[in-house]
Amino acid sequence: MSAPRWAAALQRWARHASEDLAGGPRPWRFATVINLQKGATFLVLGACLWYYGATGAPAWTYLALHGSYGLVWLLKDVAFPDPKWQVRVTIAGGLAAFCFVLGPYWVMGWLLLSGRVVPRYPLAEPVWLALCTSLCVLGVALMIAADAQKYFTLRERRQLITDGVHRYIRHPNYLGEMLIYGSFALVVWHWIPAAILAWVWLGVFVPNMVMKEASLARYPEWAAYRARSWWLIPGVL
What we know:
Blueprint: H1 5-20, E1 28-29, H2 30-52, H3 57-79, E2 88-89, H4 91-102, H5 104-113, H6 125-156, H7 172-188, H8 191-216, H9 222-228
Antiparallel strand pairs: 1-2
Helix pairs in contact: 1-4, 1-8, 2-3, 2-4, 2-5, 3-6, 3-7, 5-7, 5-8, 6-7, 7-8
């Protein structure tokens, strides 16, 4: 199974922009860039909440969800770091990844905490926020389970993972991330977070998943696994 040209081109462009941009020294690992954004999220959003005097359940719920997720990510990186994030990147590459992919996530919270957006939810506020919280918790659990299973399985032997949370879904870690950030966007309830997520999911997530499947096709059992599993959502996609 050969990788589609469009996916290969997008992934190649993304890697160049985030790892090799402008050349020069490579003082930090890509993981450091990611961890800086994730770990600082609670402080950044907390500062926004304090500065703008934000009150109300949506503001505090957003801080709790997005801020706590950043701390969970740091814990995950300590327990089972992802090897693909250990590549060293140029200064410009790290800044580009921070400004154009990771940084915009903070914009979602800023819109709400600054009062630029006053959401009008389609359901009663407590019900909507409860649904968003449930979605986030489910996403975190799925992402952690998928990454842990992949890390500890591949540490012992390189193989196609077809059990556990990968039994019915071929990309459970990406689905977990989408549930997490989707829950943040739903708390804000505005078109800008939707546009940010569309940019990241279509420009980064989808090409990565397509390229991953092209790579996994080298395993003899791939065809059978692909036939009985789903890309992201069982029974839907």
